[in-house]
Amino acid sequence: DAGVIQSPRHEVTEMGQEVTLRCKPISGHNSLFWYRQTMMRGLELLIYFNNNVPIDDSGMPEDRFSAKMPNASFSTLKIQPSEPRDSAVYFCASSGLAGHNEQFFGPGTRLTVL
Amino acid sequence: ILNVEQSPQSLHVQEGDSTNFTCSFPSSNFYALHWYRWETAKSPEALFVMTLNGDEKKKGRISATLNTKEGYSYLYIKGSQPEDSATYLCASYYTGGFKTIFGAGTRLFVKA
C-alpha cells in the first residue's frame, strides 16, 4: 500500500485565495483525520470522519475552513478565503477503528499564504 | 478544557543512555493513549496504542506503560542511539466523539 497520500505537498498562495488540500486514505481504513501543525500550537486535530461522516469538527478554526469526504477514498480540506495566519503544515491521517488503532499519517501539505 | 502534558520538553542524552518521558492526561472519559515518534521533516509514526490500565507495550528498545487511574503514561528508551533522536508525542482519546488531544511532545537529542 502506498500509505496516506496528500496533495499538493507544497502550496503557496495569496491572501484571499481559495485553497484545497486533498487526501487519499489507506484502503480499508474507515477513520480519517485532518490535523494542522504550527509552531505556536503544535499538532491540532481539525476534524475527524468515520465512515465518511464528520464526527467531530470542533477543531475547525472558523467558517473559512470546510472539509468533505465524498467517498471512502478521498477527502478535501478547503480554506476560503485564505489568510496569512493559515500558514501551517496540514496532515491527513487514517486508521481503522478510531482510538483502538494506530493512525497512519500522510506526508503533509505545507501551506504558505502571503 | 482537556490538556495533555508531556515532560520534559526536551532532553539531551549520550549514546547508550537509557531515558524516559512522561505523558499526563485527564483520566475522566479516557478511551486510549497513543505514542508517536516524529522525526524532523517527516510525519508522525505510531509506536504504541494502549487502552487498559496497566498496559505495557514494547517494540525493540522502546517500551511504554499506562496508568489510566492516575492519568499518566511513561515511554522508556533503553540504550539510546543517535537514530532515536526525534520528537515523541502522546495523544489521548476520550469517549463521546473520540476527542483527540495531543501533547506538545518531548524532543530527544541523542549525541554519539
List keywords for this structure.
heterodimer, A: 114 residues, mainly beta, seven-stranded mixed sheet, four-stranded antiparallel sheet, 11 strands, 54% strand, B: six-stranded mixed sheet, five-stranded antiparallel sheet, 0% helix
Structural summary, described in words:
The complex is a heterodimer of chains A (114) and B (112). Chain A has 114 residues and is mainly beta. In chain A, 0% of the residues lie in helices and 54% in strands. In chain A, strand 9 and strand 10 (104-105) form a beta hairpin. Chain B is globular and about 45 Å long. Classes of the chains: A mainly beta (114), B mainly beta (112). At the A-B interface, strand 5 and strand 10 of A face strand 4, strand 5 and strand 10 of B.
Uncertain spans of chain A = none
The value of Rg of chain B in angstroms is: 14 Å
Query: Number of helix segments of chain B?
Result: 0
Poorly predicted ranges of chain B (pLDDT <50, ≥5 residues)? none
Distance between the termini of chain B: 41 Å
Average pLDDT of chain A works out at 93
Shape of chain A: globular
Overall helicity of chain B: under 10%
Percent strand of chain B: over 45%
| Alpha-carbon distance between the two ends of chain A | 36 Å
Task: Label the structural class of chain B.
Answer: mainly beta
Question: What is the SS-derived class of chain A?
Answer: mainly beta
**Quick one: biggest sheet of chain B?**
6 strands, mixed
Oligomer: heterodimer
- Number of helical segments of chain A? 0
Protein chain pair with the most extensive contact, residues per chain: A-B, 23 and 20 residues
Question: Tally of extended strands of chain A?
Answer: 11
Count of beta strands of chain B: 11
State the major sheet of chain A: 7 strands, mixed
- Series of H and E elements of chain A: EEEEEEEEEEE
Strand fraction band of chain A? over 45%
